[in-house]
Amino acid sequence: MRYSHLFGPVLSRRLGRSLGVDLVPFKVCSFDCVYCECGDTTKVVLEREEFFPVEEVLDELEDYLSRSPVLDYITFSGSGEPTLSLSIGMCIRYLKERLPSYRVAVLTNGTLLWKEDVRRDLLEADIVLPTLSSAIEETYRRIHRPAPGLPVELIIAGIEQFRKDYTGEIWLEIFIIPGINTTKTELEALRKAIRQIHPDRVQLNTLDRPGTESWVRPASPGELRKVRDMLGLAGVESVEPVIPGSFRCIPVPEWTDSVMMVHDLLQKRPSTLEDIIDVTGLNRREVLKILRVIGARFPVTEKKEERGIFYSCPP
Length: 315
Fold this sequence. Notes:
12 strands; TIM Barrel; 10 helices
């Protein structure tokens, strides 16, 4: 079965071996972040829709998970903001009722948590990972380029209210861009917002794959440590970089079309050769062959970054 809404499993720096579930078309989001690995947002919106028949997504989940694959998480993420989909609540409930052994995570920018229906849809997830990279309006707008009518104070209030409603874990991501959100003023404002929200973890993240804007650079480990120390709060941690070969890989099952699996992965997530090897369990020669096959069928872009050459396939 060819999957339209599932991708991976991918190697996630925060969630391990993660099967992605994408509920929105490329690239529908409430943000147009300067660091996004998926590129420019083509449709910046706040209105929720059912973008695809929910039965399509549930059928794909049923088919894929019927083989009991080894996963750390099933993660709602992908090429846009997952809470824009009106189907996300039904999909989470399906997983928790039918397949409760799998842990469910939601990667969200947090922009819709001020809506009661969105908060209700996420209540059964095991972990929700919202983003708050600045609590100062001007900087927030520079980093995220949000949809109109979306001030940062509304996002903070929404995450704070969700914390009151939700009994699962909240891992708050702060995406660090050196020189932009690393000043004393910025970090004091973030510290105040973190205390309001009371997340279980605060995760300092930075660029790992090619971002949308070329001026965005990754923070060094030393810069992340300095931010952590300046925040001065318990539970703040840096997201560790991927170490090639360290991932607990599970070989691709025989029923998987390896070429299309890698192609679909590269549409959603730019990856190095080592990333693909770690995720799939294929050897280097097999992955190089697959990349040649994909390159003969589809456009493939290559971009050299600090961690190596990242391959991607435009949607």
